[in-house]
Amino acid sequence: MPKPTILFVHGAWNAPEQYAKLTGPLREAGYEVLAPRLLSLGDQAAGKTWKDDAAMLREVVRPLFAEGREVVVVAHSYGGVPATHAIEGLEATEGRPGGFTAVVYMTAFCLPKGVDLYQATGRNYLKCMQHSEPYSGVSAT
After folding, report:
1. Distance between CA atoms of 91 and 87, rounded to whole angstroms?
2. In degrees rounded to 5, what are phi and psi of residue 9?
3. What is the dihedral of CA 15, 20, 26, 30, to 10 degrees?
């Protein structure tokens, strides 16, 4: 049985490159690892939301599912929000090859359907959500 692809969904103050200590050994162990940069974060984020992130994650995995492949999601922090919504309707089911087979929430937000982080906090930004300088991401090398 082939190994599933692992989809890492980074947090709000992180970038995919910061997960190298996790993704590197997984790749060495023979897993395909995907770690796309979320659209709502960093310099390219103007007007983007968790909904754009969820849609992008779905587009990343659609070709894999078309091949009948399975995907495990590892969501960190804010990444739990778009990951949870990206999974909906694409879960692996008996009789249909491929799909999301598991979700790992790594200190992640897991919110009710249709609720974003701002709504979940009573429309008040948590202290951890406040920062004085805009996030610019980490450049890929």
Report:
1. 6
2. -120, 110
3. 100
Put residue 137 in one of left, alpha, beta given phi > 0 → left and psi -120 to 50 → alpha: left
Give the mean model confidence (pLDDT) for residues 30-55: 88
pLDDT 10s digits, 69-120 = 999 999 998 898 899 989 988 877 767 788 899 999 888 666 666 666 666 6
pTM: 0.76
Within-domain flag for 137: no
When divided into structural domains, the chain yields a total of: 1
